[in-house]
Amino acid sequence: MSSDLRSHLGRARGLGSAKSGVHHFWVQRLTAVALIPLAVWFAVSLVTLSGADYAMVRAWIGSPFVMVLLILTIVIGLHHAQLGIQVVIEDYVHNDGAKLAMIVGVKFIAVFFGLAAAVAILRIGFGG
């Protein structure tokens, strides 16, 4: 006799059709929590830099600490957005082919813009 208290149907269903819903849920919540201090830091930085000239902003971005925080903010923000858009697509797009194409497209766009932003930050930061 098994110590599992679920019914036969409950054991047969396993994790449901998505197979990863809990992981997706937690990653979205963790990225949201990570974005709170990053967004506050970014907003305070923008207010502090208001009125600054190009050279001052470029010097600010050139700080290794600032470069890392900017890249983290962009990467985590894009990942969080991609996860949220994926949920909307899964809930409201009923054609499986269109659903897959849209999810892959959103992931591609997030990766593309994340890499483009990281390259831009690094080029500005290193004076290129």
UniProtKB/TrEMBL annotation:
<dbReference type="InterPro" id="IPR014312">
    <property type="entry name" value="Succ_DH_anchor"/>
</dbReference>
<dbReference type="InterPro" id="IPR000701">
    <property type="entry name" value="SuccDH_FuR_B_TM-su"/>
</dbReference>
<keyword id="KW-0349">Heme</keyword>
<keyword id="KW-1133">Transmembrane helix</keyword>
<dbReference type="Pfam" id="PF01127">
    <property type="entry name" value="Sdh_cyt"/>
</dbReference>
<comment type="function">
    <text>Membrane-anchoring subunit of succinate dehydrogenase (SDH).</text>
</comment>
<feature type="transmembrane region" description="Helical">
    <location>
        <begin position="100"/>
        <end position="122"/>
    </location>
</feature>
<feature type="transmembrane region" description="Helical">
    <location>
        <begin position="26"/>
        <end position="47"/>
    </location>
</feature>
<protein>
    <recommendedName>
        <fullName>Succinate dehydrogenase hydrophobic membrane anchor subunit</fullName>
    </recommendedName>
</protein>
<comment type="pathway">
    <text>Carbohydrate metabolism; tricarboxylic acid cycle.</text>
</comment>
<keyword id="KW-0479">Metal-binding</keyword>
<keyword id="KW-0812">Transmembrane</keyword>
<comment type="subunit">
    <text>Part of an enzyme complex containing four subunits: a flavoprotein, an iron-sulfur protein, plus two membrane-anchoring proteins, SdhC and SdhD.</text>
</comment>
<keyword id="KW-0816">Tricarboxylic acid cycle</keyword>
<keyword id="KW-0408">Iron</keyword>
<feature type="transmembrane region" description="Helical">
    <location>
        <begin position="59"/>
        <end position="80"/>
    </location>
</feature>
<keyword id="KW-0813">Transport</keyword>
<keyword id="KW-0472">Membrane</keyword>
<dbReference type="InterPro" id="IPR034804">
    <property type="entry name" value="SQR/QFR_C/D"/>
</dbReference>
<keyword id="KW-0249">Electron transport</keyword>
